[in-house]
Specification:
Blueprint lengths: L1 E4 L1 H12 L13 E6 L2 E7 L3 E8 L1 E4 L1 E6 H10 L5 E6 L2 E6 L2 E6 L15 E6 H12 L13 E7 L2 E7 L3 E8 L1 E2 L5 E7 H10 L5 E6 L9 E6 L2 E6 L18 E6 H11 L9 E6 L2 E6 L7 E6 L1 E3 L3 E5 L1 H10 L4 E6 L6 E4 L11 E5 L7
Antiparallel strand pairs: 1-5, 1-7, 2-3, 2-6, 3-4, 4-18, 7-8, 8-9, 10-14, 10-16, 11-12, 11-15, 12-13, 13-27, 16-17, 17-18, 19-23, 19-25, 20-21, 20-24, 21-22, 25-26, 26-27
Protein backbone atom coordinates (compact mmCIF):
# COMPACT_ATOMS: atom_id res chain seq x y z
CA UNK A 1 0.00 0.00 0.00
CA UNK A 2 1.28 3.44 -0.91
CA UNK A 3 -0.62 6.73 -1.18
CA UNK A 4 -0.33 10.48 -0.63
CA UNK A 5 -2.92 12.68 1.04
CA UNK A 6 -3.30 16.27 2.17
CA UNK A 7 -2.37 16.61 5.84
CA UNK A 8 -5.61 18.38 6.88
CA UNK A 9 -7.77 15.89 4.97
CA UNK A 10 -6.06 12.99 6.75
CA UNK A 11 -6.29 14.59 10.20
CA UNK A 12 -9.99 15.41 9.67
CA UNK A 13 -10.89 11.92 8.40
CA UNK A 14 -8.94 10.12 11.14
CA UNK A 15 -10.36 12.32 13.92
CA UNK A 16 -13.92 11.75 12.74
CA UNK A 17 -13.51 7.99 12.48
CA UNK A 18 -11.71 7.75 15.85
CA UNK A 19 -14.84 9.03 17.65
CA UNK A 20 -16.31 5.55 17.31
CA UNK A 21 -13.33 3.67 18.75
CA UNK A 22 -14.30 1.89 21.99
CA UNK A 23 -12.60 3.12 25.19
CA UNK A 24 -12.24 -0.44 26.46
CA UNK A 25 -12.39 -2.71 23.39
CA UNK A 26 -13.81 -6.19 24.11
CA UNK A 27 -11.27 -7.62 21.63
CA UNK A 28 -7.92 -5.96 20.71
CA UNK A 29 -8.65 -5.55 16.97
CA UNK A 30 -11.58 -3.21 17.75
CA UNK A 31 -9.02 -0.65 18.96
CA UNK A 32 -7.79 -0.60 15.37
CA UNK A 33 -8.69 1.72 12.51
CA UNK A 34 -9.14 -0.06 9.20
CA UNK A 35 -7.33 1.65 6.31
CA UNK A 36 -8.30 0.77 2.74
CA UNK A 37 -6.60 2.55 -0.17
CA UNK A 38 -8.05 2.05 -3.64
CA UNK A 39 -9.38 4.82 -5.89
CA UNK A 40 -10.21 6.66 -2.63
CA UNK A 41 -9.10 6.27 0.99
CA UNK A 42 -11.62 4.56 3.27
CA UNK A 43 -11.13 4.68 7.04
CA UNK A 44 -13.38 2.56 9.28
CA UNK A 45 -14.01 1.97 12.98
CA UNK A 46 -16.50 -0.39 14.63
CA UNK A 47 -17.35 -1.42 18.20
CA UNK A 48 -20.21 -3.87 17.41
CA UNK A 49 -22.74 -1.13 18.30
CA UNK A 50 -21.71 1.84 16.18
CA UNK A 51 -19.73 1.87 12.94
CA UNK A 52 -18.12 4.84 11.21
CA UNK A 53 -16.63 5.06 7.75
CA UNK A 54 -15.24 8.04 5.86
CA UNK A 55 -13.96 8.23 2.29
CA UNK A 56 -11.68 10.95 0.92
CA UNK A 57 -9.53 11.68 -2.14
CA UNK A 58 -5.93 10.40 -2.33
CA UNK A 59 -3.16 9.91 -4.87
CA UNK A 60 -2.69 6.16 -4.79
CA UNK A 61 0.36 4.32 -6.14
CA UNK A 62 -0.31 0.88 -4.67
CA UNK A 63 -3.74 -0.09 -3.34
CA UNK A 64 -3.94 -2.09 -0.13
CA UNK A 65 -5.35 -2.44 3.38
CA UNK A 66 -3.96 -2.20 6.90
CA UNK A 67 -5.17 -2.13 10.50
CA UNK A 68 -3.38 0.13 13.00
CA UNK A 69 -4.07 1.56 16.47
CA UNK A 70 -6.81 4.11 15.88
CA UNK A 71 -6.03 6.34 18.85
CA UNK A 72 -2.32 6.46 18.03
CA UNK A 73 -3.08 7.29 14.39
CA UNK A 74 -5.43 10.07 15.54
CA UNK A 75 -2.80 11.59 17.84
CA UNK A 76 -0.10 11.39 15.17
CA UNK A 77 -2.20 12.82 12.32
CA UNK A 78 -3.34 15.70 14.55
CA UNK A 79 0.26 16.69 15.33
CA UNK A 80 1.77 16.40 11.84
CA UNK A 81 3.40 19.48 10.25
CA UNK A 82 1.52 21.24 7.39
CA UNK A 83 2.88 19.15 4.50
CA UNK A 84 1.45 16.37 2.30
CA UNK A 85 1.53 12.94 3.98
CA UNK A 86 2.88 9.78 2.37
CA UNK A 87 1.61 6.49 3.80
CA UNK A 88 3.27 3.19 2.91
CA UNK A 89 3.30 -0.37 4.24
CA UNK A 90 6.41 -2.43 4.78
CA UNK A 91 5.68 -5.94 5.96
CA UNK A 92 3.94 -5.67 9.35
CA UNK A 93 4.50 -1.92 9.60
CA UNK A 94 2.79 1.24 8.33
CA UNK A 95 4.98 4.31 7.79
CA UNK A 96 3.84 7.92 7.67
CA UNK A 97 6.16 10.58 6.23
CA UNK A 98 5.23 14.24 6.50
CA UNK A 99 7.92 16.84 5.84
CA UNK A 100 10.87 15.82 8.02
CA UNK A 101 8.66 13.80 10.41
CA UNK A 102 8.49 10.03 10.10
CA UNK A 103 6.35 7.58 12.13
CA UNK A 104 6.28 3.79 12.08
CA UNK A 105 3.20 1.97 13.37
CA UNK A 106 2.76 -1.74 13.98
CA UNK A 107 -0.18 -3.36 12.22
CA UNK A 108 -2.81 -5.76 13.57
CA UNK A 109 -4.13 -8.76 11.62
CA UNK A 110 -6.62 -7.33 9.07
CA UNK A 111 -8.30 -10.72 8.65
CA UNK A 112 -9.45 -10.64 12.31
CA UNK A 113 -11.29 -7.33 11.84
CA UNK A 114 -15.11 -7.73 11.74
CA UNK A 115 -17.06 -6.79 8.61
CA UNK A 116 -18.88 -3.50 9.03
CA UNK A 117 -22.67 -3.77 8.94
CA UNK A 118 -24.37 -2.89 5.68
CA UNK A 119 -26.24 0.38 5.48
CA UNK A 120 -30.00 -0.16 5.73
CA UNK A 121 -32.08 1.07 2.75
CA UNK A 122 -32.13 4.88 2.36
CA UNK A 123 -35.39 6.31 3.73
CA UNK A 124 -34.94 10.01 2.93
CA UNK A 125 -32.83 13.12 3.45
CA UNK A 126 -32.87 16.21 5.67
CA UNK A 127 -30.84 19.43 5.78
CA UNK A 128 -27.73 18.70 7.85
CA UNK A 129 -27.73 21.96 9.86
CA UNK A 130 -31.41 21.71 10.76
CA UNK A 131 -31.01 18.05 11.70
CA UNK A 132 -28.02 18.79 13.96
CA UNK A 133 -29.90 21.64 15.69
CA UNK A 134 -33.04 19.52 16.18
CA UNK A 135 -31.12 16.57 17.64
CA UNK A 136 -29.24 18.88 20.02
CA UNK A 137 -32.54 20.35 21.24
CA UNK A 138 -33.94 16.91 22.04
CA UNK A 139 -30.88 14.97 23.25
CA UNK A 140 -30.53 17.22 26.34
CA UNK A 141 -33.60 15.58 27.88
CA UNK A 142 -32.41 11.98 27.42
CA UNK A 143 -31.57 9.99 30.53
CA UNK A 144 -28.01 9.10 31.54
CA UNK A 145 -28.89 6.00 33.56
CA UNK A 146 -27.79 2.94 31.58
CA UNK A 147 -29.86 0.67 33.82
CA UNK A 148 -32.93 2.05 32.00
CA UNK A 149 -31.68 1.90 28.38
CA UNK A 150 -35.01 2.98 26.91
CA UNK A 151 -34.69 6.42 28.53
CA UNK A 152 -31.15 6.95 27.16
CA UNK A 153 -32.49 7.06 23.61
CA UNK A 154 -34.15 9.52 21.25
CA UNK A 155 -37.34 8.24 19.67
CA UNK A 156 -37.36 8.96 15.94
CA UNK A 157 -40.85 8.85 14.42
CA UNK A 158 -41.22 9.26 10.68
CA UNK A 159 -44.61 9.81 9.10
CA UNK A 160 -44.56 11.00 5.50
CA UNK A 161 -42.72 14.33 5.34
CA UNK A 162 -42.58 14.82 9.12
CA UNK A 163 -39.86 13.57 11.47
CA UNK A 164 -40.62 13.81 15.21
CA UNK A 165 -37.79 13.46 17.73
CA UNK A 166 -38.56 12.90 21.42
CA UNK A 167 -36.61 12.06 24.59
CA UNK A 168 -37.25 12.05 28.32
CA UNK A 169 -35.51 11.24 31.60
CA UNK A 170 -38.85 11.29 33.51
CA UNK A 171 -38.23 14.83 34.83
CA UNK A 172 -38.46 16.61 31.49
CA UNK A 173 -39.48 15.80 27.94
CA UNK A 174 -38.22 17.38 24.72
CA UNK A 175 -40.09 17.07 21.42
CA UNK A 176 -39.06 18.54 18.06
CA UNK A 177 -40.76 18.23 14.68
CA UNK A 178 -39.01 18.87 11.37
CA UNK A 179 -39.71 18.34 7.68
CA UNK A 180 -37.65 16.09 5.49
CA UNK A 181 -37.71 14.56 1.99
CA UNK A 182 -38.73 10.88 2.22
CA UNK A 183 -37.89 8.40 -0.55
CA UNK A 184 -41.59 7.44 -0.56
CA UNK A 185 -44.42 9.83 0.40
CA UNK A 186 -46.13 7.13 2.47
CA UNK A 187 -42.97 6.12 4.39
CA UNK A 188 -43.44 5.60 8.13
CA UNK A 189 -41.06 4.17 10.74
CA UNK A 190 -40.18 4.34 14.42
CA UNK A 191 -36.70 3.88 15.91
CA UNK A 192 -35.12 4.36 19.33
CA UNK A 193 -31.55 5.61 18.81
CA UNK A 194 -28.95 6.01 21.60
CA UNK A 195 -29.02 9.77 22.32
CA UNK A 196 -25.25 10.22 22.63
CA UNK A 197 -24.59 8.45 19.32
CA UNK A 198 -27.31 10.45 17.57
CA UNK A 199 -26.08 13.78 18.96
CA UNK A 200 -22.42 13.08 18.06
CA UNK A 201 -23.37 11.87 14.59
CA UNK A 202 -25.72 14.74 13.75
CA UNK A 203 -23.15 17.32 14.88
CA UNK A 204 -20.38 15.69 12.82
CA UNK A 205 -22.32 15.43 9.54
CA UNK A 206 -22.80 19.16 8.91
CA UNK A 207 -19.97 19.27 6.32
CA UNK A 208 -22.43 18.19 3.61
CA UNK A 209 -25.68 20.05 2.82
CA UNK A 210 -27.88 17.04 3.55
CA UNK A 211 -27.91 13.95 5.74
CA UNK A 212 -29.36 10.77 4.30
CA UNK A 213 -31.15 8.65 6.90
CA UNK A 214 -31.35 4.89 6.35
CA UNK A 215 -33.69 2.64 8.31
CA UNK A 216 -34.05 -1.11 8.14
CA UNK A 217 -37.50 -2.64 7.81
CA UNK A 218 -38.73 -5.70 9.70
CA UNK A 219 -36.97 -8.79 8.43
CA UNK A 220 -35.11 -6.84 5.74
CA UNK A 221 -31.57 -5.57 5.32
CA UNK A 222 -30.36 -3.65 8.34
CA UNK A 223 -33.13 -4.66 10.73
CA UNK A 224 -32.51 -3.14 14.15
CA UNK A 225 -30.11 -0.57 12.63
CA UNK A 226 -30.18 3.06 11.59
CA UNK A 227 -27.69 4.68 9.24
CA UNK A 228 -26.66 8.28 8.52
CA UNK A 229 -24.63 9.47 5.55
CA UNK A 230 -23.41 12.87 4.39
CA UNK A 231 -20.30 14.61 3.09
CA UNK A 232 -18.44 11.35 2.45
CA UNK A 233 -19.12 10.10 6.00
CA UNK A 234 -21.41 7.30 7.07
CA UNK A 235 -22.38 5.92 10.47
CA UNK A 236 -24.57 3.02 11.52
CA UNK A 237 -25.92 2.37 15.00
CA UNK A 238 -27.83 -0.44 16.61
CA UNK A 239 -31.24 0.58 17.88
CA UNK A 240 -32.34 0.30 21.49
CA UNK A 241 -35.02 -2.19 22.48
CA UNK A 242 -37.99 -1.34 24.65
CA UNK A 243 -41.23 0.59 24.45
CA UNK A 244 -40.82 4.33 24.71
CA UNK A 245 -43.22 6.21 26.99
CA UNK A 246 -46.47 7.42 25.38
CA UNK A 247 -45.17 10.96 25.50
CA UNK A 248 -47.95 12.69 23.58
CA UNK A 249 -50.34 12.04 26.46
CA UNK A 250 -47.96 13.96 28.77
CA UNK A 251 -48.25 17.19 26.77
CA UNK A 252 -51.19 19.24 28.13
CA UNK A 253 -53.89 20.10 25.60
CA UNK A 254 -55.07 23.17 27.57
CA UNK A 255 -53.33 25.71 29.78
CA UNK A 256 -54.57 27.94 32.59
CA UNK A 257 -51.81 30.51 32.15
CA UNK A 258 -49.10 31.68 29.80
CA UNK A 259 -46.07 33.88 30.51
CA UNK A 260 -43.56 35.42 28.12
CA UNK A 261 -40.09 36.62 29.12
CA UNK A 262 -37.07 37.78 27.09
CA UNK A 263 -34.91 34.64 26.87
CA UNK A 264 -31.39 36.09 27.32
CA UNK A 265 -32.13 38.10 30.52
CA UNK A 266 -34.11 35.13 31.86
CA UNK A 267 -31.15 32.77 31.37
CA UNK A 268 -28.75 35.19 33.08
CA UNK A 269 -31.14 35.74 36.00
CA UNK A 270 -31.66 31.99 36.54
CA UNK A 271 -27.87 31.48 36.52
CA UNK A 272 -27.35 34.25 39.10
CA UNK A 273 -30.16 33.24 41.43
CA UNK A 274 -29.27 29.54 41.29
CA UNK A 275 -25.77 30.31 42.63
CA UNK A 276 -27.25 30.07 46.13
CA UNK A 277 -29.38 27.01 45.36
CA UNK A 278 -27.93 24.02 47.15
CA UNK A 279 -27.83 20.72 45.29
CA UNK A 280 -31.36 19.62 44.29
CA UNK A 281 -32.85 22.91 45.53
CA UNK A 282 -35.26 24.58 43.13
CA UNK A 283 -35.51 28.11 41.79
CA UNK A 284 -38.92 29.59 42.53
CA UNK A 285 -40.69 31.71 39.91
CA UNK A 286 -43.51 34.00 41.08
CA UNK A 287 -45.44 35.33 38.10
CA UNK A 288 -47.74 38.33 38.39
CA UNK A 289 -48.94 40.99 35.94
CA UNK A 290 -45.88 42.63 34.37
CA UNK A 291 -43.12 40.73 36.17
CA UNK A 292 -41.63 37.48 37.40
CA UNK A 293 -39.67 37.28 40.66
CA UNK A 294 -36.97 34.61 40.85
CA UNK A 295 -35.95 33.33 44.29
CA UNK A 296 -33.61 30.67 45.64
CA UNK A 297 -32.45 29.72 49.11
CA UNK A 298 -34.56 29.69 52.27
CA UNK A 299 -34.41 30.50 55.95
CA UNK A 300 -30.90 30.04 57.35
CA UNK A 301 -29.26 29.55 53.92
CA UNK A 302 -27.90 32.08 51.45
CA UNK A 303 -30.71 33.70 49.50
CA UNK A 304 -31.12 35.44 46.14
CA UNK A 305 -34.00 37.40 44.62
CA UNK A 306 -34.27 39.04 41.20
CA UNK A 307 -37.21 40.53 39.28
CA UNK A 308 -37.66 40.61 35.49
CA UNK A 309 -40.26 42.04 33.16
CA UNK A 310 -42.76 39.43 31.99
CA UNK A 311 -46.20 39.34 30.44
CA UNK A 312 -48.79 37.04 32.00
CA UNK A 313 -52.11 35.76 30.72
CA UNK A 314 -54.11 34.12 33.51
CA UNK A 315 -53.92 34.12 37.30
CA UNK A 316 -50.77 34.84 39.33
CA UNK A 317 -48.80 31.65 39.95
CA UNK A 318 -45.82 30.46 42.04
CA UNK A 319 -43.96 27.55 40.46
CA UNK A 320 -40.49 26.07 41.09
CA UNK A 321 -38.05 24.17 38.86
CA UNK A 322 -34.70 22.44 38.99
CA UNK A 323 -32.48 25.30 37.72
CA UNK A 324 -30.25 23.05 35.56
CA UNK A 325 -33.29 21.57 33.79
CA UNK A 326 -34.79 25.03 33.30
CA UNK A 327 -31.53 26.38 31.83
CA UNK A 328 -31.25 23.41 29.45
CA UNK A 329 -34.69 24.20 28.07
CA UNK A 330 -34.13 27.96 27.82
CA UNK A 331 -30.85 27.41 25.98
CA UNK A 332 -32.50 25.01 23.53
CA UNK A 333 -35.63 26.92 22.45
CA UNK A 334 -33.76 29.02 19.88
CA UNK A 335 -36.00 32.07 20.33
CA UNK A 336 -35.47 35.53 21.80
CA UNK A 337 -38.75 35.16 23.71
CA UNK A 338 -39.41 32.27 26.10
CA UNK A 339 -43.03 31.21 26.49
CA UNK A 340 -43.95 29.21 29.60
CA UNK A 341 -47.40 27.61 29.59
CA UNK A 342 -48.78 26.08 32.79
CA UNK A 343 -51.89 24.48 34.21
CA UNK A 344 -51.18 24.45 37.96
CA UNK A 345 -48.11 24.90 40.18
CA UNK A 346 -47.78 21.13 40.63
CA UNK A 347 -48.36 19.95 37.05
CA UNK A 348 -45.83 19.97 34.20
CA UNK A 349 -45.21 23.27 32.42
CA UNK A 350 -44.26 23.55 28.74
CA UNK A 351 -41.48 25.84 27.55
CA UNK A 352 -41.43 26.98 23.91
CA UNK A 353 -40.23 29.87 21.81
CA UNK A 354 -42.76 32.10 20.10
CA UNK A 355 -44.77 30.08 17.53
CA UNK A 356 -43.47 30.47 13.95
CA UNK A 357 -46.77 32.09 12.89
CA UNK A 358 -49.93 32.95 14.76
CA UNK A 359 -51.98 29.87 15.48
CA UNK A 360 -49.22 27.40 14.54
CA UNK A 361 -47.91 24.91 17.07
CA UNK A 362 -44.25 25.49 17.95
CA UNK A 363 -41.82 23.02 16.35
CA UNK A 364 -40.02 22.55 19.69
CA UNK A 365 -41.61 21.85 23.07
CA UNK A 366 -39.80 21.26 26.35
CA UNK A 367 -41.99 19.90 29.13
CA UNK A 368 -40.57 20.27 32.63
CA UNK A 369 -41.83 18.87 35.92
CA UNK A 370 -42.13 21.45 38.70
CA UNK A 371 -40.64 20.86 42.14
CA UNK A 372 -43.20 20.92 44.95
CA UNK A 373 -42.81 23.92 47.22
CA UNK A 374 -43.00 23.18 50.93
CA UNK A 375 -45.22 25.32 53.13
Amino acid sequence: MKFRIDRDALADAVAWTARTLPVRPPVPVLAGMHIEASDRLKLSAFDYEVSAQVSTDIDVEEPGTALVSGRLLAEISRSLPPHPVEVTTDGAKVMLRCGSAKFTLLTMPVEDYPTLPEMPPAAGAVGSDEFAAAVAQVAIAAGKDDTIPMLTGVRVEIEGETVTLASTDRYRLAVRELHWKPERPDFSAVALVPAKTLADTAKSLTAGAEVSIALGGAGGTGEGMIGFEGGGRRTTSRLLDGDFVKYRSLLPSEYAGLAEIQTAPFIEAVKRVSLVAERNTPVRLSFSQGEVVLEAGTGDEAQAVEALEATLEGEDIDIAFNPAFLLDGLSAIGSDVARLSFTTATKPAVLTGKPPQDGENPHYRYLIMPVRLSG
